[in-house]
Design a protein that fits this description.
Chain lengths: ~325, ~475
Amino acid sequence: MTVTGAPMWAVVPAAAVLLVMALAAAVLDAVFDTAAAGGGGTAVHGRRWSRPLVEVARLMRQRGRTTVEPDRLLWRIGTAGPLVAALLMAAVVPVGGTVVADLPVGIVWFNAVDVTLWAAVWLAGWGPNSVYPLIGGYRFVAQALGYELPLMFALTAPAVAAGSLSVGEVVRAQQGLWFAVWMPVAFVVFLGAVAALGVWGPFSSPVGRDAAGGVLAEAAGVDRLLLLTGRYALLAAGSGMAVALFLGGGAGPWLPGWAWSLLKTLAVLAALVALRRRLPVLRPERIVRLGWLVALPAVLLQLLVVSAVVVAKG
Amino acid sequence: MGLSTALRNLSGRLAAPAARVPHVLLVVCPGATAVRLAAEVAVAGLGGRLADSPTEADVLLVAGEPSQEMRAATDVLWGQMPGPRVRAEATRPQDAEPVLRALLPVLTGRGQEAEATQRDDEWGRDEEEDGHGGVHEDNHGGHGGEQRSHGGHEGHGGHGDEQRSHDRHGDHGGQEDHDGGHEGHGGMQMPGGLMMADRAEDRDGLKLDVLHVPLGPVLPDWPAGLVVDTVLQGDVVQRAEGRVLPSAGPCPPPFWQNDDDHLVAPEARTAACHLDSLGRLLALAGWEDAAAGARRLRDRLLAGEPVDAVRADFGPWRRRVERSRTLRWATDGIGVLTPVDAARLGVSGPAVRARPPHDATARWLRWLTETEEALAGGKVPDGGPRGHTAPDGSPPSRGLLDVAVELAPGLELSAVRLLVASLDPDPDELAAAPEPGRAWEEAEKEPRQSRHDHGEHRGHEEHRGHGEGHGQGHGEGGHGGGGGER
């Protein structure tokens, strides 16, 4: 399947699709939430799926938070950061045969944007001038040290196999065999990194309950809504990228390409969302250890295998 | 004008669904475990959830009768809630559900708007208004809401307020100069009325800001009314001192040890107690599903369901928790309590019976084992879920708290939270112990000599201290409003 760039106006529907996917992630999370099923037999089972919408209404109605001597500009940047980063990532993710920005270096773009999250989440913690958000910010930077290098090499593997840094080329190179099949380690590491980008599941200590919500502790109203949306949008954009890099993009029988892209993205998203229910949170120090002692060597070996295969095939 | 009317209409339309999932900040007073349990059930039953922070919450529910300090802390938390917001107290377990139910309509009612406009604290002006320029400017200048509020609970007593209210809206790039050499000479007023933090060597030999942060008395999944005053560098605890806020009036006997309640047998009660502790630990470890499972089992036991039925569901849950390698990995090595130290500090109960290496993992594994034994009808060892009274007459939780405080230095905040949860001292026992009343009066007169003193007045132990974030704060959370209070 060839991927071509879209005209300028495609930015709008692309953003809309990303937001719908983010909402889908939130709905999935609410549906999987057995903890909300109540304690004393008076469980509220019905309409769990509508919780994200209720939450949006609640946050739209809530006031914004000010603190004493906040670093207001940086706080705003940090609050908007995750959603903006997700939108920028989504710009290079093809849906079917179309992509908003058909960059020759799309993979590098994705990587560059995910690094800006270091700053964004840190600033969201720094801005409010309050101890728990700051601790959340520290935690994010610490765990980013753990996941970033494995993520970079996981991104490198499909690029090497396709001989191109363009996401469209990577999709085309998967005709016949998805990269997830013969580079499973890179795929798994990439998915883990996507969860980490979304401060999700085992990587959610920056917003941990033990730190009163961490980075989210002082965010109220629309600020909180932006941060939470950004989180889900990052998961969605990351899932979309996983589909393009490892799961053949829009390739599939019967359905049109865009439908396959969206379906696969939803499936990856559902897997990531379900992950949260299964695993406790890992402390950043453990994530660094996992990242450097397990994920990094494993993904480097994967890269070696991929490179050897590419050379052997000529 | 058109815009604001439109916004108001929108707000009205959003109100009804918004109250369907209330986020409840539960403030539990020492001695009010029964009310807390009822409130947790009620919150879940109404489809709400427990908030992590006051900023997230729209309902403030006080469980139990707050003492003076608890009330002060509650007021600070109330001030941090953005609104729409409602608050109430439930002093008896059977009150929790009706009180909460009655609150929800108020949350969506018209009264919220009136409350918001009359609000006389830091929220009197919010960010949106800043953006829209001077429309509301004189309004606020008029009744000086902002100034007073900050004097009130950030406790930088009046002066400098005028200055800072301007600073906040101006360009504040320059004033918050954290690397300039102003580290905390006593008495220096910084723009926010905040002191610069002192700096000291940390464990890695770096010079880092020293922050005084009280943990508690209100934190998610934290023993009710417990305050651990910490000295933080980064997120590493350098020093810790623990105390329990006194209860208001005479404290009932500790909930978990109260044998007069014939509804639930002591064995089931002990099992429920361990499940309660486990739920807290699992929630802090970020495993909400397993935590919710523990709480459901606990509530079923306390509701008087036959033990055998609960036991049947406990088995699969236990296996799931026990098998989790990631959970073990998260708690391994935290808070090693050697038998020697345990004997020295007068600890008994499951914490002592935990196997080597005596860390947090060993302790939660022990809880699982003892819950199983209790559900199987085994006799409760020691007569109580947390052990027996120490030789010097202090309740078992005293030793557990001492252990937590002794082992905390050098750990990161998350590890400290897990450490406290893995020991889970019960403030009910400490607030009900005979000596605290006395210690409270003494502490009023003389400075604290040991961490055993209860009543030292340090103002509002609020949920957090702003300002500490930038490393320039002086723990207004901890030291702040005292001035305003006395």
